[in-house]
TrEMBL record:
Transmembrane regions: none
Family: Belongs to the Mrp/NBP35 ATP-binding proteins family.
Subunit: Homodimer.
Gene Ontology MF term list: 4 iron, 4 sulfur cluster binding; ATP binding; ATP hydrolysis activity; ATP-dependent FeS chaperone activity; metal ion binding
Residues of the full protein shown: 48 to 306 of 309
Keywords annotated in UniProt: ATP-binding, Hydrolase, Iron, Iron-sulfur, Metal-binding, Nucleotide-binding
Domain of life: Bacteria
Protein's name in the database: Iron-sulfur cluster carrier protein
C-alpha cells in the first residue's frame, strides 16, 4: 500500500518537468501538422527527448508523417504506450485510436477524453511533448488549456490566413488563458520553384512578420511552399530529419532556446 502514493509523486514530478508545447492554427490545411512533425524532429536532433501527440481529430496525419502509418499503440493498465518512429520521436495519435479509414465524428467530450489518453500516455523520459492540435478553437483546445496548461504555443499561419483573422483568434485563445505564445511561423510563404529553387512571393512578403510585430509576438520564421516538402512529408521523411535541412532547424533552435 505504501508504493502507490510514492509512485504517484514520481509521475507528478515527471509531468511538471516535461514541457508541453502546443502547435496551433486558426484553420485547417495551413501546415500545422507539417510544422509539428518537423519541430518535434528538430528538437530531438537538438538533443531534447521529444514525444509527439497528434490530437488533430479532423485529420490525424502524424502516423503518416512519422512513418508509422497503420500502427496501434499497446496499453499497460489502460495507459497507452507511445509508438516508436524512425525519427527518434515516439508518437500517440487520435488516428491510432480509431479503425483505419473510419470517419471520425468525435463529440466534444469524447475528443477531450481521447486527448487525455494521449497526453497521459507512458511518455517515460520525454522532456518535451509537441502537441498537434486540431485547427480552430474547440473542445480539444479548451481541455488542453484548462487541464494540461501547455508551457507555450507555436502558431502556424499562411500569409492569407493571417490577413483573414483566423490565426489572430487562435493567438487570442492562448493569450486570454495566460499561455505564452512562443512565436508565429509563416508557412507557404513564397513559392519555391521546383526547377531552380528560387523563391518567389505570389502573396507578397513580410505580412506575417508585420502581423507578429503588431500582435507583439515573436516571429520564428517562414517556410516556403515547396513541392519537396509535400512529397517528403507524404513519404514519412520530414525535411527536418535531413542533415542539410536549413528551413526547420532554425525554427526548432528558437523553440529550444525558449524552453
Ligand atoms: P494542417 O495540419 O494545418 O491541416 P498539413 O500540415 O496537414 O496542414 O498540410 C496540408 C497539406 O499541405 C499537406 O499535404 C502538406 O504536405 C502540405 N504542405 C504543408 N506545408 C507545405 C509547404 N511548406 N510546402 C508544400 N506543401 C506543404
Amino acid at each position: 500500500k505504501m508504493a502507490a502514493p510514492g509512485a504517484r509523486v514520481i509521475v507528478t514530478a515527471e509531468r511538471q518537468a516535461r514541457a508541453l508545447i502546443a502547435v496551433a492554427s486558426g484553420k485547417g490545411g495551413v501546415g500545422k501538422s507539417t510544422l509539428a512533425a518537423n519541430l518535434a524532429i528538430g528538437l530531438a536532433r537538438a538533443g531534447r527527448r521529444v514525444g509527439l501527440v497528434d490530437a488533430d481529430i479532423y485529420g490525424p496525419s502524424q502516423p503518416r508523417l512519422m512513418k508509422v502509418e497503420g500502427t496501434r499503440p499497446d496499453a499497460i493498465e489502460k495507459q497507452l504506450i507511445p509508438v516508436a518512429t524512425p525519427h527518434g520521436v515516439p508518437i500517440l495519435s487520435m488516428g491510432q485510436l480509431v479503425a483505419p479509414d473510419q470517419a471520425i465524428a468525435w463529440r466534444g467530450p469524447m475528443a477531450a477524453g481521447a486527448l487525455g489518453q494521449l497526453v497521459e500516455g507512458a511518455w517515460g523520459a520525454a522532456d518535451t511533448l509537441i502537441l498537434d492540435l486540431p485547427p480552430g478553437t474547440g473542445d480539444v483546445q479548451l481541455t488542453m488549456i484548462q487541464k494540461y496548461r501547455p508551457a507555450g504555443a507555436v502558431i502556424v499561419s499562411t500569409p492569407q490566413d493571417l490577413a483573414l483573422i483566423d490565426a489572430r483568434r487562435a493567438i487570442d485563445l492562448f493569450a486570454k488563458a495566460g499561455i505564452p505564445i512562443i512565436g508565429l511561423v509563416e508557412n507557404m510563404a513564397g513559392y519555391a520553384c521546383p526547377h531552380c529553387g528560387t523563391v518567389s512571393d505570389p502573396f507578397g512578403r513580410g505580412g506575417a512578420e508585420a502581423a507578429a510585430a503588431e500582435l507583439n509576438i515573436p516571429f520564428l520564421g517562414r517556410v516556403p511552399l515547396d513541392i519537396a516538402i509535400r512529397t517528403a512529408s507524404d513519404a514519412g521523411e520530414p525535411p527536418a530529419a535531413r542533415d542539410d535541412d536549413r528551413i526547420f532547424a532554425p525554427i526548432a533552435a528558437q523553440v529550444a532556446g525558449w524552453l
